[in-house]
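ARCHIVE CARD
Drawer: 12
Card no.: 0347
Subject: one protein chain, sequence and derived structure
Cross-reference: see card 0346
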Amino acid sequence: MDPVATNEVPELKLHFLDYWRVIRLRRSLIVMVFLLCVVTSALLSFWLPKQYASTVRIEVLKDTVAVPVTTGGAQLQSYTADPYFLTTQFKIIESYSILTNVVTDLRLDTKLVGPDDPPLTMDQAEGLLFSKIAVDQTRMTSLIEITVRHSDAKLAADIANDIVTAYRKSRMEMWKDDRYRGIYALQDQLKMGQSNVLVAETLLNEMRLSNNISDTSDNPNSRATIIDDQLRDYQREETAALTDYHYYSNILAGISNIPSKDLGQALNTAYAHQSDPEFSELAMRKHVAEDRVTSLNASAFGPDHPERLAAEKELKDAAADYNAKIEGILIGLRERVEIDRDRMQTMQRLTSDLESTRNNLSKIYQPYFSLKRDLEDLRRNNEDLNRMINKQLQEVGQPLNTVIVRDPARPVERPVSPKTYYIIPFGIFVGLLVGVSLAFFIEYLDTSVKTIDDVERALQAPVLGVIPQNIGNIMEEGPETPHAEAYRVLRTNILFSRKNESWNTISMLSGGAGEGKSTTLFNLAVIFAQNGHRVVVVDSDLRRPALHKMLHVPNTIGLTDYLLKQRTLDEVVQKTKMATLDFIPSGKLPSTSMSILGSAQMKETIQELKRRYEFIFFDSPPLLGVSDASILASEMDMVLQVIQYRRYPQPMTLRAKQMILKVGGNLVGIVLNNINMSQDENYYYYSGYYEYGSQQKDKTVVQLSDAAKEAKADIKQKY
């Protein structure tokens, strides 16, 4: 069972060779676009006016504060990092005020235009100058680059240097304005401070006179210091008296409970730190007298013995003196305690009185000396302000240079534009890119037949032959021409495509005019005739007959005359220089050709020719727009559709095929005509095969036979 016909088109998978084929095919377009872009870029490089760039590099330092802050006579420098400082300076350099000063200094209103052009206005000159400058930061540094572009290298350098001059002058003026504003503010503060000093001095004199304050010392605290020293002396005396009082009071309290006999020993211990030789001598004397009495009592002397009596009397006197001394010491201790008490009370009273005096004096002296200290502060502040004013005046007279030129602008001999080494390579790149892109774009828009795969995929029909470009009349060129091999392959494929040996009427149709069907049909008939077949060629293209021109015969009588029964068949058949090839011209064009080609007489003519000849070839007009070809296709045993390479879009060829099938024509295959073998590598095999076949004829027969077998197998597989 035959497979069910389908209209599905197999998916197209592009290969690298397909892209390369497009490039080779469209290489003339690519080369033309490439040369156009290269020539254009070269002309632009030479015709565009040359532009020179001069660059000046400057270092911009931040201004110090206009008025430094002072605290207690020490100057504090105020500084904060500003990440937008350089960016701000870029905009200031490009500002209207800077550029207009440059325009005025260099008279750029006339230099930026041609000698014959009118001068520019200030706004026009500033705008034009702004477009010619570029301000940027030198990479990895804090330097500023000012670049000026102009057709005059010297003027570009002058403009760049003058921009720096104008910028420096602007910053200097701003710096001086800030300094003078600071000086004026300091002077106002100084005047106010001086008036405050006068008021404070007047008030201080009034307080001194009203309170009888003696202010002879430079130290306002001298009087208070004297009182404090005296107060500390009183306090020390009071402390010493208190210490003695407690010491001797404790001694008296301790010996009051001691027996009389031990009182001397206690006093001797208490006064051990004090040197009293009399008390020690009396104690020693008493002790010696006691020892003598004790020794005499232990002797043989009686109580009345004079020595014992003398010793006892001496002991009694020594004890009386010793006791009297003890009593004197006790009286002295009591008096010392009383004296220390009185001295302590006296010091306490004096201290209290002195503290009262000090407090009273503080109430009087404190406001005075406080006002005096304030007055001294005012005077010191005025002195600081005066020093700052003098310093600022000196700085204004000797201003700092905050704009330092590190690399001045100089005229450059080499132009920066047009950049030939950029423009020409860019033109080459663009030329290749645009050329290749345009080639692929045109290829995308071109829906005509390009390859055998295109035909078989779109029309679902086999390609039986590929005819090279620029083929003429095979009869005149001879059977050995390489072009004849293409028709021999086509003949072989047609023979193997016949499903019935009785099929011998062949017609070649095309969708549009100029696809080469008449030439292809005639050359194919010549190949059949050269092979020994009895062949007749019928020019049934009644509208535009052309075959008689190829045979160089008249077209006065022909097919139309026979169909109209004006001539016999033998009269319209013309012989050619090939014995096996006959020709029937179209004859004169009747008023309507459709009725003639569709008449019963035409069918009888076809049957008569089938009996006389082995193969009959009918030429016909194009299918689209003319009905003659459709009528003729329905009467043919085999129909071949001729498609010219890259001429008509595929939908047109598909429509032509559908018309053949619609009228019942037997379409056996497709013939691709006018193929450029040298440009399209898809057909290189055919070209090489034909040339090789012309050189080795014997081998060609075998190869053609093999190719025919392969074509037949392919046709059987598809149908």
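Annotation on reverse: The chain is about 60% helix and 10% strand. The chain has a mean pLDDT of 80.
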